[in-house]
Sequence to fold (690 residues):
Amino acid sequence: MITLDDVAKQAGVSTSTVSIVVNNRHVRGVSVSPATRERVLHVAREMGYTPNSLARAVATGKNRVLGFIKDDLAAELAMRIMVGAQQECEIADYLIKPFQLSHPAIASDLVRKCLGQRVAGIIVVNLPDDALAIVLHEAKTAEVPVVMVDSPSPNASCIQITSDAEQGVRLMCGHLVEQGHKRIAFIGGPADSVVSQERKRIFRDACLEYGLDIREDMIVDTSWGETDIVKAAVAPLLARPVEHRPTALFCAGDAIAMMSVKTARRCGLRVPKDVSVTGYSNASYAYLCDPALTTVAQDFVEMGRIAVRHVLALAADKDCAAKSAIVKVPTSLVVRESTWGPDWV
Amino acid sequence: MITLDDVAKQAGVSTSTVSIVVNNRHVRGVSVSPATRERVLHVAREMGYTPNSLARAVATGKNRVLGFIKDDLAAELAMRIMVGAQQECEIADYLIKPFQLSHPAIASDLVRKCLGQRVAGIIVVNLPDDALAIVLHEAKTAEVPVVMVDSPSPNASCIQITSDAEQGVRLMCGHLVEQGHKRIAFIGGPADSVVSQERKRIFRDACLEYGLDIREDMIVDTSWGETDIVKAAVAPLLARPVEHRPTALFCAGDAIAMMSVKTARRCGLRVPKDVSVTGYSNASYAYLCDPALTTVAQDFVEMGRIAVRHVLALAADKDCAAKSAIVKVPTSLVVRESTWGPDWV
DNA sequence: CTGAAAGCGCTAACAA
DNA sequence: TTGTTAGCGCTTTCAG
Fold:
C-alpha cells in the first residue's frame, strides 16, 4: 500500500505539502503553488495513492463514521431507515457502520465496540427501553451523541425521530369514517409491542373524536407475522351476524392486514365489498397484493436522513449530552383497493 | 477520551503491559503476572477505557473491517445477504461497512473510498458487469480480495457466490410437471436482467428434459415490479381458449407472481384451481399473500455467510489475486397454496 | 510557499 | 515479568 510519504518522496516535496494538497486545504490564502499542487496530484494519481482514512482519523481525533445499531437487522423498516441515513451520510461525506444487537444482554459490549471505532455519533433503531438506557449511558460517558429512530420511548433522554402516529392513525380513521364505516375493529400486533399499543391508544382516541363508539370486543391483539394467531382473532369477529360484524378492520401493520384479508376470504367475505381492511407502514408488498392495501405510509428513509442530520448537529456542538426531543415525521395516507364504503348496509 | 497511556500511568505500568493485557495476548508462555493483569484490568474498567480500534488498525496495518458494496441498498435480498455477512463477521470479530453504489459512473471513486478505509476485503452484491470490472481492477492493485454475491457474471475473475439457478428452476419445473402441467408459461423479468434471462434459459432446458414442448409464445419478458407491464403480458395468455391457455405460470420472481395472480383473477380465473402460479426467491411476503406462493427459496443469508468466509480466507492467504470460482448454494422448493394439479382438464 | 518535527493512540521487537 | 523504543500513516503547528 502506497503512502503519503511515498508520494512526497517521489514528487520531491515534504509530506506536509502532500497532505495539504490531497486534502485540498487552503491554510490562510493560497498556500501551495499551483505548480507543485499539480505535480503532487499527478504523482499521487500515477502511483495509485489512496489516503488512509484510519490514520487520518487517529491523527485528527475525528472519525467520519456513524454507528448504526439495530436489534433486528432484517426488518424492512430498519433497512429503509438505513438507506436514508446512508443518503444523508453520502452528502456529508460520512460512512455508516452497522452493529447488530442480537441480544439485549450484550448491549453494553456492543456499544463499547461501536465506541471503539471512535464513531462521531450513534443512530439507534428500535431498541427496547432497557437496551436503549445502556446505550445512552455508555455513549454519554464517551460524549458521543445518539439519536433514536422509530420506536417511541417517551422518557429516554435523547432525541428521537419517530413517525407521527397521532396523525397517521387519525388519517386512516378519518378515511374510514368518511367512507361511512361505523363499526371498525382494531387488529393489533403483539400485546407487548409498544408501537402496536400506541396505535391502539390513538385509535381509541380517534374513534371518540369521530363520534364512534369504541367497542372493546372489537379491539384485539395478535402478532406481526403469525398467521394462526391473526386468524384466530379475526375469524370470530368476521363470523358475527352482519349487524354486529365490523365493516372495517384497522390493522396495526401491513402483514396483519394481508393475513386479515385472507381470513376474511376464508369466512366467505369479499374485500373490500363486504369488509374493508387497512394496513400500516406501506411495506414493499402493500401495492402488490390483491386487493392492493390502503395503508398509511411512514417515510422511513426521511426518518433516517433526519436522524443523521441531528446526530451530526449534536456532534458539532459540544453540548451533545442532555438534549432530548421527539421529532415526528408526518405520514401520508395511501388509498388503494382494500377500502370501500359499506354501501351494502 | 481516555487512552491506553492514561491507564498505564494510573496503574503504574508501561503502555506495552497494558496493551498486552487488554488484548490478552500471551507472548511466549505467560508474560504478565496475574497480579498486574488484574490490576490493569481493574483500572481500565474503573476509568472506562475503550481501546481505539482505529489506532490499533494503523499500528498493525490490519483493519478488521469488510467493505460491502451494493447498487440498490433497499433490495430485500441485499439486506438478507448483509444479515448473513454480519452474522459471520460477528463470530470472526469483523465489522462491516456498507457502501452505496448509487450510480455505476462513480464506481471507481466508491471503491477508492472503501479502500481508503483499509478494509480487509470487499463483498460486492449484484453489480453490473462494468461496475464490477472497475471494482475488481481497483481492488486488485490494492491487493484486497473481493467476492461477488448473487449476480452471475461468468467471466469476472473473482470468486462468486450465487444461488443454484440450474437446480432451482428445475426443482420448480419438476414440481409443476409432477402435478401434471403440460402448458407452462414463463413470465420473466426485464429483458435486460441477467438473472431473469438465466432463469429463462434454464426453464427452456428443463422443459426439454421433462419432455415438454417449449412454446415461445408462452415465454414473455415483463418487469420486476410494474403492474401494468406484467398485466399486459399475462392477460393475453390467460385470455386464450382453455385448450391453448397455460395451466401454470412460472414467474421469475415473487412480485411478478403476485401481479400475475392478480391478473388471473381479473381474467376470472381462480388460482390455483384454474391456473397455478409460482414465484422465485421466497420474499418475506410470499407466505402472506393469498394464495400463499409456491416458490423456490434462495438462502441469501447463507450466501452472505459464505461470502465472508471466502473473503476472509482470501485475505489470510496472500495469493488473493487471481482466484476465481463460482460457488452455488442450493435452493429449496417451498410448496404452498398457489400450485395445484390441472385436474380439471 | 514549503519543510521539519512533534504528536495521535496503539503495537511489537528488543532490552532489562 | 516488565519497560524502552521505534514506528504505523497522517495532521498540524511553527520556522525557514
Notes: Chain A has a mean pLDDT of 93. The two ends of chain A are 76 Å apart (CA to CA).
